[in-house]
Design brief:
Helix content is about 30%, strand content about 10%. With about 200 residues, it is of the alpha+beta class. It has a domain of about 120 residues. The strands form 3 sheets. The protein has a 3-stranded mixed β-sheet, with no helix packed on it. Strand 2 and strand 3 form a beta hairpin. About 10% of the residues are buried. Bound molecules: heme C (4 copies). One heme C binds next to loops. One heme C binds next to strand 2 and helix 3.
Length: about 200
Amino acid sequence: MSHDIRHYRPLALLALVFAAGCGRAPVEPAPTAKFEMAATRHPVAIRRPAGPPSVPTGTLDEKGRPVTIACANCHATKPAVADAKLGSPLKLFHQGLIGQHGTLSCVSCHNPTDGYASLRLADGKSVPYAEVMTLCAQCHGPQFRDYQHGAHGGMTGYWDLSKGSRVRNNCVDCHDSHAPKYPTVTPAPGPNDRNPSGGGHE
Ligand code: HEC
Ligand code: HEC
Ligand code: HEC
Ligand code: HEC
Protein backbone atom coordinates (compact mmCIF):
# COMPACT_ATOMS: atom_id res chain seq x y z
CA MET A 1 0.00 0.00 0.00
CA SER A 2 2.13 2.93 1.21
CA HIS A 3 4.99 1.25 -0.68
CA ASP A 4 3.61 2.44 -4.01
CA ILE A 5 2.90 6.00 -2.99
CA ARG A 6 6.43 6.54 -1.63
CA HIS A 7 7.73 5.40 -4.98
CA TYR A 8 5.79 7.92 -7.06
CA ARG A 9 5.77 10.97 -4.85
CA PRO A 10 9.11 12.41 -6.02
CA LEU A 11 8.19 11.99 -9.68
CA ALA A 12 4.91 13.78 -9.16
CA LEU A 13 6.69 16.65 -7.46
CA LEU A 14 9.17 16.93 -10.34
CA ALA A 15 6.34 17.01 -12.87
CA LEU A 16 4.71 19.86 -10.95
CA VAL A 17 7.94 21.87 -10.97
CA PHE A 18 8.35 21.42 -14.72
CA ALA A 19 4.77 22.38 -15.42
CA ALA A 20 5.16 25.55 -13.38
CA GLY A 21 8.40 26.41 -15.17
CA CYS A 22 6.95 26.00 -18.66
CA GLY A 23 3.85 28.01 -17.94
CA ARG A 24 5.83 31.19 -17.16
CA ALA A 25 7.88 33.35 -19.46
CA PRO A 26 11.53 32.85 -18.50
CA VAL A 27 12.78 35.55 -16.18
CA GLU A 28 16.46 36.11 -16.71
CA PRO A 29 18.72 38.23 -14.55
CA ALA A 30 19.21 41.43 -16.55
CA PRO A 31 22.53 40.83 -18.29
CA THR A 32 22.76 44.43 -19.47
CA ALA A 33 23.49 45.60 -15.94
CA LYS A 34 26.79 43.73 -16.03
CA PHE A 35 27.77 45.09 -19.44
CA GLU A 36 26.97 48.66 -18.43
CA MET A 37 29.40 48.32 -15.53
CA ALA A 38 32.11 47.16 -17.90
CA ALA A 39 31.42 49.93 -20.40
CA THR A 40 31.71 52.69 -17.80
CA ARG A 41 35.14 51.55 -16.60
CA HIS A 42 37.10 54.66 -17.48
CA PRO A 43 40.69 54.56 -18.73
CA VAL A 44 43.91 55.18 -16.84
CA ALA A 45 46.26 57.44 -18.80
CA ILE A 46 49.92 57.98 -18.00
CA ARG A 47 51.34 61.37 -18.82
CA ARG A 48 54.38 61.19 -21.07
CA PRO A 49 56.80 63.59 -22.69
CA ALA A 50 55.80 64.52 -26.23
CA GLY A 51 59.10 63.39 -27.74
CA PRO A 52 62.82 64.01 -27.83
CA PRO A 53 63.98 67.25 -26.25
CA SER A 54 65.71 69.86 -28.35
CA VAL A 55 68.11 72.68 -27.64
CA PRO A 56 66.89 76.29 -27.81
CA THR A 57 69.06 78.57 -29.94
CA GLY A 58 67.86 81.73 -28.23
CA THR A 59 66.48 83.09 -31.51
CA LEU A 60 62.89 83.38 -32.75
CA ASP A 61 61.52 82.57 -36.19
CA GLU A 62 59.45 85.08 -38.20
CA LYS A 63 56.30 84.01 -36.33
CA GLY A 64 57.93 84.62 -32.96
CA ARG A 65 58.37 80.97 -32.07
CA PRO A 66 61.64 79.87 -30.47
CA VAL A 67 64.02 78.12 -32.86
CA THR A 68 65.33 74.84 -31.51
CA ILE A 69 67.86 72.26 -32.79
CA ALA A 70 67.44 68.51 -32.54
CA CYS A 71 70.18 66.60 -30.69
CA ALA A 72 71.12 64.62 -33.77
CA ASN A 73 71.91 67.81 -35.73
CA CYS A 74 75.16 67.99 -33.82
CA HIS A 75 75.55 64.46 -32.49
CA ALA A 76 74.89 62.33 -35.57
CA THR A 77 78.42 63.17 -36.74
CA LYS A 78 80.20 63.99 -33.45
CA PRO A 79 81.69 60.84 -31.88
CA ALA A 80 80.11 60.21 -28.45
CA VAL A 81 82.28 60.86 -25.40
CA ALA A 82 81.56 57.79 -23.29
CA ASP A 83 83.05 59.02 -20.01
CA ALA A 84 81.18 62.37 -19.80
CA LYS A 85 79.35 62.34 -16.47
CA LEU A 86 76.75 64.30 -14.57
CA GLY A 87 78.54 66.29 -11.87
CA SER A 88 81.51 67.31 -14.03
CA PRO A 89 80.30 70.25 -16.11
CA LEU A 90 80.89 70.25 -19.87
CA LYS A 91 82.96 73.12 -21.23
CA LEU A 92 82.13 73.43 -24.93
CA PHE A 93 78.34 73.07 -24.81
CA HIS A 94 75.51 72.26 -22.38
CA GLN A 95 77.47 74.27 -19.80
CA GLY A 96 74.35 74.87 -17.74
CA LEU A 97 73.85 71.16 -17.24
CA ILE A 98 75.20 70.34 -13.80
CA GLY A 99 73.35 67.37 -12.45
CA GLN A 100 73.58 64.90 -9.62
CA HIS A 101 72.25 61.42 -10.17
CA GLY A 102 74.52 58.87 -8.56
CA THR A 103 77.67 58.86 -10.69
CA LEU A 104 75.91 58.04 -13.95
CA SER A 105 77.60 58.77 -17.26
CA CYS A 106 75.52 60.52 -19.91
CA VAL A 107 75.49 57.42 -22.12
CA SER A 108 73.94 55.26 -19.38
CA CYS A 109 70.72 57.01 -20.45
CA HIS A 110 71.33 58.76 -23.79
CA ASN A 111 71.70 56.54 -26.85
CA PRO A 112 75.00 57.36 -28.61
CA THR A 113 74.21 55.15 -31.63
CA ASP A 114 71.54 57.50 -33.05
CA GLY A 115 73.00 60.92 -32.23
CA TYR A 116 71.17 61.00 -28.87
CA ALA A 117 67.78 60.94 -30.63
CA SER A 118 66.59 58.31 -28.11
CA LEU A 119 67.33 56.88 -24.68
CA ARG A 120 68.81 53.45 -24.13
CA LEU A 121 68.77 50.62 -21.64
CA ALA A 122 71.84 48.86 -20.23
CA ASP A 123 71.54 46.11 -22.86
CA GLY A 124 71.76 48.75 -25.62
CA LYS A 125 68.06 48.63 -26.52
CA SER A 126 66.75 51.99 -27.73
CA VAL A 127 63.84 53.59 -25.81
CA PRO A 128 61.90 56.58 -27.19
CA TYR A 129 61.88 59.64 -24.88
CA ALA A 130 58.13 59.23 -24.51
CA GLU A 131 58.82 55.85 -22.83
CA VAL A 132 61.30 57.31 -20.34
CA MET A 133 59.64 55.39 -17.49
CA THR A 134 61.02 52.15 -18.93
CA LEU A 135 64.49 53.61 -18.44
CA CYS A 136 63.82 54.72 -14.86
CA ALA A 137 62.25 51.35 -14.03
CA GLN A 138 65.41 49.53 -15.14
CA CYS A 139 67.38 50.95 -12.19
CA HIS A 140 64.55 51.72 -9.75
CA GLY A 141 62.54 48.50 -9.69
CA PRO A 142 61.12 48.94 -6.15
CA GLN A 143 59.85 52.48 -6.84
CA PHE A 144 58.43 51.37 -10.18
CA ARG A 145 56.56 48.50 -8.51
CA ASP A 146 55.25 50.93 -5.87
CA TYR A 147 54.20 53.20 -8.72
CA GLN A 148 52.31 50.38 -10.42
CA HIS A 149 50.48 49.67 -7.15
CA GLY A 150 49.64 53.35 -6.78
CA ALA A 151 51.80 53.85 -3.66
CA HIS A 152 54.31 56.12 -5.42
CA GLY A 153 53.79 58.84 -7.99
CA GLY A 154 50.31 60.13 -7.25
CA MET A 155 47.36 60.52 -9.57
CA THR A 156 44.49 62.81 -10.41
CA GLY A 157 40.97 61.65 -11.13
CA TYR A 158 39.12 58.69 -9.65
CA TRP A 159 40.10 55.69 -7.57
CA ASP A 160 36.78 54.17 -8.63
CA LEU A 161 37.12 53.82 -12.40
CA SER A 162 33.38 53.32 -12.84
CA LYS A 163 33.01 57.00 -11.82
CA GLY A 164 35.63 58.59 -14.04
CA SER A 165 39.07 58.33 -15.56
CA ARG A 166 42.43 58.55 -13.86
CA VAL A 167 45.65 60.28 -14.92
CA ARG A 168 48.99 59.12 -13.54
CA ASN A 169 52.08 61.30 -13.41
CA ASN A 170 55.25 60.34 -15.19
CA CYS A 171 58.46 59.88 -13.15
CA VAL A 172 59.89 62.95 -14.89
CA ASP A 173 56.90 65.12 -13.89
CA CYS A 174 58.33 65.03 -10.36
CA HIS A 175 61.98 64.07 -10.80
CA ASP A 176 64.45 65.94 -12.98
CA SER A 177 66.30 63.21 -14.89
CA HIS A 178 69.62 64.93 -14.27
CA ALA A 179 69.03 65.89 -10.65
CA PRO A 180 66.21 63.65 -9.46
CA LYS A 181 66.27 64.44 -5.74
CA TYR A 182 62.66 65.48 -5.18
CA PRO A 183 62.73 68.97 -3.59
CA THR A 184 65.05 70.42 -6.27
CA VAL A 185 62.23 70.72 -8.80
CA THR A 186 58.70 72.02 -8.75
CA PRO A 187 56.29 69.34 -9.93
CA ALA A 188 54.96 70.00 -13.41
CA PRO A 189 51.46 71.44 -13.59
CA GLY A 190 48.63 68.91 -13.37
CA PRO A 191 46.82 67.65 -16.43
CA ASN A 192 43.99 70.14 -16.01
CA ASP A 193 46.35 73.05 -16.51
CA ARG A 194 45.13 75.19 -19.39
CA ASN A 195 48.53 76.63 -20.25
CA PRO A 196 49.89 74.36 -23.02
CA SER A 197 53.41 75.79 -22.75
CA GLY A 198 53.88 73.52 -19.71
CA GLY A 199 54.36 70.66 -22.14
CA GLY A 200 54.12 66.94 -21.42
CA HIS A 201 50.37 66.71 -22.08
CA GLU A 202 48.72 63.69 -23.59
C1 HEC B 1 74.63 72.81 -31.34
C2 HEC B 1 75.18 71.49 -31.24
C3 HEC B 1 74.60 70.56 -30.17
C4 HEC B 1 73.30 70.22 -29.98
C5 HEC B 1 72.07 70.69 -30.72
C6 HEC B 1 73.30 69.22 -28.92
N1 HEC B 1 74.57 69.02 -28.48
FE1 HEC B 1 75.13 67.68 -27.05
N2 HEC B 1 77.04 68.32 -27.21
C7 HEC B 1 77.53 69.25 -28.12
C8 HEC B 1 78.95 69.46 -27.89
C9 HEC B 1 79.83 70.41 -28.64
C10 HEC B 1 79.31 68.59 -26.82
C11 HEC B 1 80.69 68.42 -26.18
C12 HEC B 1 80.76 69.29 -24.94
C13 HEC B 1 82.09 69.20 -24.23
O1 HEC B 1 82.79 68.22 -24.47
O2 HEC B 1 82.40 70.10 -23.43
C14 HEC B 1 78.10 67.88 -26.43
C15 HEC B 1 78.06 66.91 -25.45
C16 HEC B 1 76.95 66.11 -25.20
C17 HEC B 1 76.96 64.96 -24.32
C18 HEC B 1 78.15 64.43 -23.54
C19 HEC B 1 78.72 63.19 -24.19
C20 HEC B 1 79.35 63.48 -25.53
O3 HEC B 1 79.11 62.65 -26.45
O4 HEC B 1 80.09 64.47 -25.70
C21 HEC B 1 75.67 64.45 -24.33
C22 HEC B 1 75.15 63.22 -23.62
C23 HEC B 1 74.88 65.32 -25.17
N3 HEC B 1 75.70 66.31 -25.70
C24 HEC B 1 73.52 65.13 -25.37
C25 HEC B 1 72.76 65.97 -26.15
C26 HEC B 1 71.34 65.86 -26.27
C27 HEC B 1 70.47 64.83 -25.56
C28 HEC B 1 70.94 66.85 -27.12
C29 HEC B 1 69.53 67.20 -27.54
C30 HEC B 1 68.63 67.54 -26.47
C31 HEC B 1 72.13 67.56 -27.54
N4 HEC B 1 73.21 67.02 -26.93
C32 HEC B 1 72.14 68.63 -28.44
C33 HEC B 1 76.78 69.88 -29.07
C34 HEC B 1 75.41 69.80 -29.21
C1 HEC C 1 69.36 59.08 -15.69
C2 HEC C 1 69.35 59.26 -17.12
C3 HEC C 1 70.10 60.42 -17.72
C4 HEC C 1 71.43 60.77 -17.56
C5 HEC C 1 72.48 60.06 -16.73
C6 HEC C 1 71.64 61.93 -18.39
N1 HEC C 1 70.48 62.30 -19.01
FE1 HEC C 1 70.22 63.90 -20.21
N2 HEC C 1 68.23 63.54 -20.28
C7 HEC C 1 67.62 62.42 -19.77
C8 HEC C 1 66.21 62.47 -20.08
C9 HEC C 1 65.17 61.43 -19.71
C10 HEC C 1 66.00 63.68 -20.79
C11 HEC C 1 64.68 64.24 -21.34
C12 HEC C 1 64.19 65.37 -20.51
C13 HEC C 1 63.63 64.88 -19.24
O1 HEC C 1 62.72 64.06 -19.29
O2 HEC C 1 64.10 65.29 -18.17
C14 HEC C 1 67.29 64.32 -20.89
C15 HEC C 1 67.50 65.54 -21.53
C16 HEC C 1 68.76 66.01 -21.86
C17 HEC C 1 69.01 67.22 -22.64
C18 HEC C 1 67.96 68.17 -23.22
C19 HEC C 1 67.23 68.92 -22.14
C20 HEC C 1 68.12 69.69 -21.23
O3 HEC C 1 68.06 69.45 -20.01
O4 HEC C 1 68.93 70.52 -21.72
C21 HEC C 1 70.37 67.35 -22.76
C22 HEC C 1 71.13 68.42 -23.47
C23 HEC C 1 70.96 66.24 -22.02
N3 HEC C 1 69.95 65.47 -21.49
C24 HEC C 1 72.30 66.03 -21.89
C25 HEC C 1 72.88 65.16 -20.97
C26 HEC C 1 74.29 65.13 -20.67
C27 HEC C 1 75.34 66.00 -21.33
C28 HEC C 1 74.46 64.16 -19.70
C29 HEC C 1 75.73 63.79 -18.98
C30 HEC C 1 76.53 64.91 -18.44
C31 HEC C 1 73.13 63.58 -19.43
N4 HEC C 1 72.21 64.23 -20.21
C32 HEC C 1 72.86 62.58 -18.52
C33 HEC C 1 68.21 61.40 -19.06
C34 HEC C 1 69.52 61.41 -18.63
C1 HEC D 1 71.51 53.34 -15.00
C2 HEC D 1 70.78 53.34 -13.74
C3 HEC D 1 69.83 54.48 -13.45
C4 HEC D 1 68.84 54.99 -14.27
C5 HEC D 1 68.55 54.62 -15.71
C6 HEC D 1 68.10 55.93 -13.49
N1 HEC D 1 68.63 56.01 -12.22
FE1 HEC D 1 67.94 57.13 -10.68
N2 HEC D 1 69.53 56.60 -9.54
C7 HEC D 1 70.52 55.72 -9.94
C8 HEC D 1 71.54 55.69 -8.91
C9 HEC D 1 72.81 54.84 -8.95
C10 HEC D 1 71.13 56.60 -7.91
C11 HEC D 1 71.86 56.96 -6.64
C12 HEC D 1 71.45 56.02 -5.57
C13 HEC D 1 72.11 56.37 -4.29
O1 HEC D 1 72.96 57.26 -4.26
O2 HEC D 1 71.73 55.74 -3.33
C14 HEC D 1 69.86 57.12 -8.31
C15 HEC D 1 69.07 57.98 -7.55
C16 HEC D 1 67.80 58.40 -7.90
C17 HEC D 1 66.90 59.16 -7.05
C18 HEC D 1 67.17 59.59 -5.62
C19 HEC D 1 67.94 60.89 -5.66
C20 HEC D 1 68.33 61.40 -4.30
O3 HEC D 1 69.40 62.04 -4.22
O4 HEC D 1 67.57 61.19 -3.34
C21 HEC D 1 65.78 59.40 -7.77
C22 HEC D 1 64.55 60.15 -7.31
C23 HEC D 1 65.96 58.80 -9.08
N3 HEC D 1 67.20 58.21 -9.12
C24 HEC D 1 65.03 58.86 -10.10
C25 HEC D 1 65.27 58.40 -11.40
C26 HEC D 1 64.40 58.65 -12.52
C27 HEC D 1 63.13 59.45 -12.46
C28 HEC D 1 64.95 58.01 -13.59
C29 HEC D 1 64.46 58.01 -15.02
C30 HEC D 1 64.55 59.33 -15.71
C31 HEC D 1 66.18 57.37 -13.15
N4 HEC D 1 66.32 57.65 -11.82
C32 HEC D 1 67.01 56.62 -13.95
C33 HEC D 1 70.52 54.97 -11.08
C34 HEC D 1 69.69 55.15 -12.17
C1 HEC E 1 54.01 62.77 -7.81
C2 HEC E 1 55.43 62.91 -7.85
C3 HEC E 1 56.28 61.66 -8.07
C4 HEC E 1 56.27 60.81 -9.14
C5 HEC E 1 55.34 60.82 -10.35
C6 HEC E 1 57.34 59.87 -8.91
N1 HEC E 1 57.97 60.15 -7.73
FE1 HEC E 1 59.63 59.25 -7.02
N2 HEC E 1 59.56 60.39 -5.34
C7 HEC E 1 58.64 61.39 -5.09
C8 HEC E 1 58.87 61.94 -3.78
C9 HEC E 1 58.07 63.05 -3.11
C10 HEC E 1 59.98 61.25 -3.24
C11 HEC E 1 60.62 61.45 -1.89
C12 HEC E 1 60.02 60.43 -0.98
C13 HEC E 1 60.56 60.50 0.37
O1 HEC E 1 61.33 61.41 0.69
O2 HEC E 1 60.21 59.59 1.12
C14 HEC E 1 60.40 60.29 -4.26
C15 HEC E 1 61.48 59.44 -4.11
C16 HEC E 1 61.97 58.62 -5.14
C17 HEC E 1 63.21 57.88 -5.09
C18 HEC E 1 64.23 57.91 -3.97
C19 HEC E 1 64.10 56.73 -3.06
C20 HEC E 1 62.87 56.83 -2.23
O3 HEC E 1 61.98 55.96 -2.35
O4 HEC E 1 62.77 57.79 -1.42
C21 HEC E 1 63.33 57.20 -6.27
C22 HEC E 1 64.46 56.27 -6.68
C23 HEC E 1 62.15 57.51 -7.05
N3 HEC E 1 61.34 58.39 -6.34
C24 HEC E 1 61.89 57.01 -8.30
C25 HEC E 1 60.73 57.24 -9.02
C26 HEC E 1 60.39 56.56 -10.25
C27 HEC E 1 61.24 55.51 -10.94
C28 HEC E 1 59.19 57.06 -10.68
C29 HEC E 1 58.35 56.64 -11.86
C30 HEC E 1 57.98 55.23 -11.92
C31 HEC E 1 58.79 58.06 -9.70
N4 HEC E 1 59.73 58.13 -8.71
C32 HEC E 1 57.64 58.83 -9.77
C33 HEC E 1 57.68 61.83 -5.98
C34 HEC E 1 57.34 61.24 -7.18
